[in-house]
Amino acid sequence: MPAKISKSVKALVEKEYSFNIMLIVLGIYIFVLLPLVGHDVVEKITYLSFYCMMLSTGLPFMVRNKRFGLIALFTLLPVVFICIEFVLPATWVRLTIDIIIVFYFITLAWILLMRVFSRTRNDRYRVQGAIVAYLLIALSFAILYHIIYLIDGPGSIKGLLSYSRREFVYLSLSTLTTIGYGDVTPISEMARSLANLEALTGQLYPAVLIARLVALEINEASKEA
After folding, report:
1. Selection from 166, 164, 128, 129 nearest residue 29 by Cα
2. Cβ count near 173 (within 10 Å)
C-alpha cells in the first residue's frame, strides 16, 4: 500500500511539473516572444524552439494514453517541415506544418482536460491544466486562421498589419475572449464561421469549466464529511 501511495504522489508531482513548464512556455511565447520577434527567420527559429518545448512536455501525456501513443510519432513531423521551410517556403509546407501542429495542440488540450476533470484532487493541478488547455485552444484557432489565409489569400481577413503568426494569435485571443476590437475582421465565409465557433467556445469554456470544478469540489467535500 505505501508503495502504491508513493507512486501516485510521484506521478502527481510529475504532472504538476509538466503543467508548470507548459504554462511558463506558453506564457513566454504568446505574451513576450511573439510581440518582440519581427524578422522572419527569427520568428521561425522561435516557433521551432517553442514547438520543441511543447513536444518535450506534452508528448509524455500522449504516450501514456494507449489511444494516442502511436499518433504521438506523427507530431514529430513539424520539426522536420519547419526546418524545410527555411529553404523551401512553399505554401504546401506551411499547410502541412499548420495541420499537424493544430492536431497536436487540440489532442493535447483534450488529454489535459480529461486529467483536469478526473477525480484526483489537487486544485492547483486542475487550475493550471485548465489554463494550459485554454491557451492551446487559442493557439489552435490562430493556426486555423493561418490555414484559411494560406488557402483563401489575404482577402480572407481584413486589418492584418502583417501576415506573421503573432497577428493570427492576436486575432484568436481577441475572438476567444470575445473582446472584438474590430481592427482585425474575418471577411471570408470560412473565417467568419471559424470566428463564430471560437467566440462560442470562449463563452462556453469558462462556464462549463467552473461548473464542473465546483461539482467535483462539492462531491469530494461530501465524501470527506
Report:
1. 166
2. 19
Task: Write out the residue range of the structural domain in which residue 171 sits.
Answer: 2-224
| Strand segments (E) across the chain | 157-158, 185-186
Provide the terminal-to-terminal Cα distance of the chain, rounded to the nearest Å. Answer: 24
pTM of the predicted protein model: 0.87
φ, ψ for residue 186, nearest 5 deg: -65, 135
Distance CA(97)–CA(193), nearest Å, equals 22
CATH number at residue 116: 1.10.287.70
Nearest to 27 by CA among 132, 111, 107, 130: 132
The string of pLDDT tens digits covering residues 132-191 is 999 999 999 999 999 999 999 888 999 988 888 899 999 999 999 988 888 999 999 999
Q: ∠103-141-53 over CA atoms, to 5°?
A: 55
